[in-house]
Amino acid sequence: MDKPDWAGPLTEAYERSLGYLTALPDRPVGNTMNWPDLREALGGPLPEGPEDARDVVAKLATAAEPGLVNTPSGRFFGFVVGGAHPAALAADWLATTWDQNACLAALAPSASAVEEVAGEWLVRLFGLPVQTSVGFVTGGQMANFTALAAARHEMLRREGWDVEADGLAGAPRLRVLAGRQRHDSIDRALRFLGLGRNAITPVETDDQGRMRPDALAEALAEGGGPTIVCAQIGGVNTGAFDPVGEICAIAHEAGAWVHVDGAFGLWAAAVPRLRHLTAGVEQADSWATDGHKWLNVPYDSGMVFCAHPEAHRAAMGIRAGYLIHGADGERDAIDYTPDFSRRARGFAVYAAIRTLGRTGIADLVERCCTLAARFAERLAAHDDVEVLNDVSLNQVLVRFLSPDGDHDGHTRAVVDRVQREGTCWMSGTIWQGRAAMRISVSNWSTDQDDVDRSVEAILRCARPDAGDR
């Protein structure tokens, strides 16, 4: 076997990575090169022959870095994106080096074992039932998809229908009840599952986006048949929590399956001060969350949990003569996720949990929530700034008032200026028909200085004459 040059390209990658990460506090958070220039820098004709691997890595890094939105920065507050904790990043490098296909225990024994251990830790951390099964997927979208596939299986099985064998043609119609302020990944999952968006009956919500239990009870009473109720903890705009305990009681009384979309809100269950927000969450039938949000592991990382392992395996599992399935209790990840070929995502999750521990995870989440409250307090102190939500978690919705009355246009302009100015990066959104800036504090490295610097930059960009400079 030839001895390849591992040292050259890996040394270059290490040096570039370390340089990038150590310079993050001083880097503009947004990208500094536009798309056409990036395309030109990275483009060119199809290479005709080989090139030195270290040179390739160096040229790639040089060309790509100006187009990076520096999401690992402590001053990136767009969407709900955490940074990568050092231990998780290092474990993810190892996962890439080891290059395991983590679908089968026979193919990747260590990956199988570490996912089983990390999954058990997460079940305990969130206070879920001990028999809960766990799948490691790409993110919240596929976590919701997988959980709803298990729900589809179980609810149709109770009606005497085998959806895995017979499909949906002729099947009893499933209805899905979900709050009006649900995340779009619920709708998208239902499209993937063949149920369609129109399977959803929207349930009314309050002014913060929380599902109203009385409205759910009315919706359940209006129709029968197999039903899935989708609750949400941690609304993507306001951070609000559906009253999941009440929802579970009402839905289970009607024989429905309850799925909880907890992409980032489920992590509040790990924090003593915030745990009341998730009261009753353990009564649900399935749950979805992200690791690349509040656990701060590298992309991609999501987890699906199911209180009915048989339904989970029935919806996802596959058997084939050429596959070597686990015996003697070995865990085959292919039974719990949609993938055949899949990355060994559990190593980074394991490293993050082991490094932080229960108390470290709680501190990370609580610190982000405290800093979000600081954002809201400092911005709301200015007459031309309006905070639109009750800041109960890590999300802050901000609107900027304009002397000419065009508050939507001014708010969008402020978001654009902030992104281009570079001190920090926030995203825009629409909340109850009004334009807003959405601030999400999710990064392990964010501190009070990051918040204060960002507030100052936002207020500069919000001045009426800011667009003239």
TrEMBL record:
GO terms for biological process: carboxylic acid metabolic process. GO terms for molecular function: aromatic-L-amino-acid decarboxylase activity; pyridoxal phosphate binding; transaminase activity. The modification N6-(pyridoxal phosphate)lysine is found at residue 293. The keyword Lyase applies. Keywords: Aminotransferase, Decarboxylase, Lyase, Pyridoxal phosphate, Transferase. Its cofactor is pyridoxal 5'-phosphate. It holds the Pfam family Pyridoxal_deC. Belongs to the group II decarboxylase family. This is Aspartate aminotransferase family protein. It comes from Planotetraspora silvatica.
